[in-house]
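Thread title: Can someone regenerate the structure for this chain?

I was given the following input by a collaborator and told the matching structure tokens would be attached. They weren't. Posting the sequence so someone can regenerate them.
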Amino acid sequence: MKLQADWLFQPHVQRVLGVLEAGGHQALLVGGCVRDAALFEPVSDIDIATDATPDRVLELAKGAGIKAVPTGIEHGTVTLVVDHQPHEVTTFRRDIETFGRHATVAFSTDVAEDAARRDFTMNALYARADGTVLDPLGEGLADLQARHLRFVGDPAARIEEDYLRILRFFRFTAWYGDPALGMDAEGLAACAQHSAGIETLSRERIGHEMRKLLAAPDPAPAVAAMAACGVLAQVLPGADAKTLAPLVHLEAGLAPDPLRRLACLGGTDAAERLRLSKAEAKRLEKLRAALGDLGSDAALGYRYGQADARDALLIRAALMGQEIAESSWNRVEFGAAQRFPITAKDLMPAFTGPALGAQLRDLETRWIASGFTLTREALLRDLG
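Best answer:
Regenerated them for you:
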């Protein structure tokens, strides 16, 4: 198999590969860029694996006039910058000893040893500069073509090396797996058996993975499997996966939104457990408040804005197993466009302090209840 990808033949990519090869070394594209190119998906990061040691990579880069940054030289990684584009170049490695995410590694000259330490078979694919795909383990290409996500080797051993691989198993299945195949049974069993290990992970890493999972076109089957094997309860206690599939159905035509989907899942202390940013936490709180607001569709649009009111209606419909009428969207849009005609200045000096705030809230409530029909003059006249 050969990759058919324009980015592969860009001068900056070919130059990095060419410098390494001219120095007598293997230079192979690896991991996500190979996987995504083989699936005709967009590629963001370009990773290169080589049998050259980091010092040799630095030497070759210097000789070629290429900027080299020792971004992770103790782990074998040097970043080469060509045409302002970064290319991570990492020496083949083999594990000597693993301590969760922190492994003791030795550099290797054998690409098969490098492939054997990767997480999933479809991520253990390599490609030469001409696009020829290499499958050192003999399993990755078939699994990729079948959209079957499997751990490399023993799933339990891979998970014990880094418990984040549990969440990556569900995330990659959501993005790359064939829903008709379901989850890999051996991998799913290992995730269930080792789910308690998630407690050892930082919340930042958990939150990062969950955002990526919930951004998949349809994460519902993967999240349902997480719930069934006990992983979801470890990540987000109290979350309910049952309404995610109806929500995804109702979202047709909308871009995937991890926060909308997270609000649908519910769960305890989601903002803290997933280390949401302040803006994300504020929006999640707003969505949950909108869900509990039983006012009219138009009132929902006015109070929360068109986008968040729309999301609240979607989640509510998913919870109730209902479709949403077009008229509901129209009413939300109408409400979001309304502007309360009274300001604090209109009520002063007759009202000040807390009384001023209470009076404003009372008038706004009456205005909303009128369907936004009461005019400024009518509201002030009724006041007295």
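The longest helix spans residues 353-369.
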